[in-house]
Amino acid sequence: MTNFTLKQLRYFEALAEQQHFGRAAEVCAISQPALSVQIKELEQQTGKALFERGARQVRLTAFGEDFASRVRILLRQADDLGAFAAASRERLAGRFRLGVIPTVAPYLLPGLVPQLSAHFPDIELRLRESQTARLVEELLQGRLDAALVALPVEETSLTETPLFAEDFVLVRPRAEGAHPVPHITELRNMLLLEEGHCLRDQALSFCNRPAGFARDDLDGSSLSTLVQMVGAGLGVTVLPEMAVPLETRMADVTCSAFRGSVPGRTIGMVWRRTNPMTQELLQVAQVVREAARTTCNGARVLHSRSGETL
Amino acid sequence: MTNFTLKQLRYFEALAEQQHFGRAAEVCAISQPALSVQIKELEQQTGKALFERGARQVRLTAFGEDFASRVRILLRQADDLGAFAAASRERLAGRFRLGVIPTVAPYLLPGLVPQLSAHFPDIELRLRESQTARLVEELLQGRLDAALVALPVEETSLTETPLFAEDFVLVRPRAEGAHPVPHITELRNMLLLEEGHCLRDQALSFCNRPAGFARDDLDGSSLSTLVQMVGAGLGVTVLPEMAVPLETRMADVTCSAFRGSVPGRTIGMVWRRTNPMTQELLQVAQVVREAARTTCNGARVLHSRSGETL
DNA sequence: TAAAAATACTCCATAGGTATTTTAT
DNA sequence: ATAAAATACCTATGGAGTATTTTTA
Lengths: 310, 310
Prior knowledge:
The structure is a homodimer. Chain A is α+β, with helices and mostly antiparallel strands.
């Protein structure tokens, strides 16, 4: 029963205003008969006369008046919908759900969030801190729009763009600070994050050791804890460089760069390959690079490969 | 820029709900390609991706979500508009502006208004009491929908339907009550309403006298005044029968029926010939007849000529 | 390989144009 | 007689169908 068209309603509104088929048709940029037909059609569909046709006057009927006031509201809302789309077309806007791994979040976000807000004033940013596996899971389920994780991510349905690389540094009790820096494969008594953190896997892979190598009776749940444990003489650990300023300030530890083959990680952004907002996502990635450059110690910004702008 | 159609929005809503082109197309009772094309069209017109197409999943984009919530509001409003029309289709509803001449209003309206409200619960009744010429003027200007006046009305652009006829009675000072009732053409010292009232013209016409005949130094502005003047011995007058109970109760006058050729008037309803709500207007007329029959002394109900139901 | 969306094409409904008639003043 | 809306008729756009291809998991 509601099969009138917006076009008909616009014609109706014009006629209600002009009170004259000829002028209203002109306003609508159509011919007078075309307008007549559409108005007639609308009247048939409503089942009520909308206009009273006098010889030299076209007037709304009582019903037409009521109808018109509702039609105006409807049309303005339709206009608003169009304007809303047009406005959103220009800039990234709306909800943006970003996941970040725990070994990046505390060091990057303080610089990133304000910069994102500055670049995309109409964004509604929702952040989620979790381990890679979980973030990937939520991405695939459509509960996140993008995530900042360590590359590579083995998931064919996700696309990625590299953001920045950084080295790992060795964290030892301050007392050992004078000792020569061992090669990473020679580390003893290494303290690691608990199972599931990518940093744990990365550190282990650099050491060329099996998972059983580390002191898994003392896995830490955060880098802060880990550093505190090092300060207490329970062992050594590695830290991504961006974490150094924040985590070692209050601890009785010393940080040293590795020599030779320096271990490190690459942080990138990943999102569903099917997400159609590639343009916008790459804009976000660019802002993340900028934030990393300005606020993260030792982050070497990486640039997206050409062709990714597709 | 706002040239999407309601149809497209309905398809969009279905797809947003079903998250599947095939099922959504089924819901819309169209083929899957038809839906695809319209969604694509909508996306082009908004200039933004609305859906994220996965292999086994169709999801709204962030923008799509926002868009959808607005679209739902718009569609519900469109549905309401249709429902509003459907509801009004059944019964007379909306504003109804009725004019009534002063020599009818006080006697008819107390009975009429409740009956109109009872028959048309959704009517918004607006009443206007004025002299015939003015009512006709306002009718022609579209500021009234109908008027109750004395027939005939010489105005080709108006249609009329008769409602009821009634006699005039002679009103004399009570002291003269015993005198024989004169023929109406023999009246002396007749008091009349002021210029412009149709009752004045009618009375004069029955008397076969020129306009100068009456005591125009004493024209009354209402029937009440006139009757009071008669009671004070200033002359005599005629009253339509419906006015007798109300007007003569408190006055020192007596009422007598004329003999021989009894003067009277016919009250009818008039409206613009172009008014498309003839059906409804005739319904209203019927209610007026009913009200006159039950509440107006001596009103002889007249019935509309056949063919008027057009 | 299978499921699903996009594309290609064809057809038909209908919106809109021009010419004309009807209507009402 | 004139101004204006309705009607008639024609054309062309575009919505929707079927068949097919493309895509991705």
